[in-house]
Amino acid sequence: MPPRYEVRAKDRIRKWLPKYVEVLxxxxxxxxxxxxxxxxxxxxxxxxxxxxxxxxxxxxxxxRGRWADWAVKVDxxxxxxxxxxxxxxxxxxxxxxxVVSYSRQHNLEWAVLTTADVWQCHRVASGQEPEEFFEVRxxxxxxxxxxxxxxxxxxxxxxxxxxxxxxxxxxxxxFRPERLGRLLLSEDVLAAVRRALHRENPGxxxxxxxxxxxxARGVIRxxxxxxxxxxxxxxxxxxxxxxxxxxVADNEPRAQLSPENVQERRRQAGAKAAETRRRQSEARxxxxxxxxxxxxxxxxxxx
Length: 303
Known about the structure:
Blueprint: H1 4-30, H2 34-47, E1 57-63, E2 66-74, E3 77-84, H3 93-105, E4 110-114, E5 118-123, E6 131-137, H4 145-153, H5 157-161, H6 164-174, H7 177-184, H8 187-200, H9 208-218, H10 222-230, H11 259-302
Parallel strand pairs: 3-4
Antiparallel strand pairs: 1-2, 2-3, 4-5, 5-6
């Protein structure tokens, strides 16, 4: 059961959305300017998304000599900028660059680009390329109304106050196919799968490299396989490299060593260490014996 604030926010969107779809359809037929589109967007920010018209929405917000169409605030702090383009216009990369530059000037994580009928939400984290999180197309009959409500909710005042947009983003990243593919081919997962296969087939030895190849070619295939193999690991997927087993060279691939080979290397390393200790002990005994005459000579001289 979703929390009550989410239910109220989505009910509000469902109430107002049919009205604005009708307004946008009529405006699209006659054609309207960017300024008129911006006026509709302001009303949608109020009626659909729940922001206060006078205290939480600022038009033509100055950003280093330029002007963002709308700055949306939550608890007196800017939460995201909204860049408006004329209704029906195709949103271009330079339009995105414009709102991204505003957002980064204020160290914001989100930016919204809209033509009133299309709403794009982009993540613009510092040091990373902008990435589209979702797109709402209100006049597209192929996009379900339930999807409109779910996505627009993430831009509401209620969701913004509770970090719902960031939470949904993190959740979406956990289930990205590329991320799941990299995890499936990670050392820990492959080792667990190999143990399970050993339990089911005690007499069958499974090598890690063969298991990785089987998963990569038979389970993770096509474009996803290429993306998994080419894309670098994401932050949070990386783990410290394990130290090699005693007697195993640092540059030797662990996947090529069977458990029997590792045990043999350890046995050899232990034998080598024991031989080194024996030689050191023998050298100390020889030194003590050689030192005896000198001590006897010293004693007779003293007499």
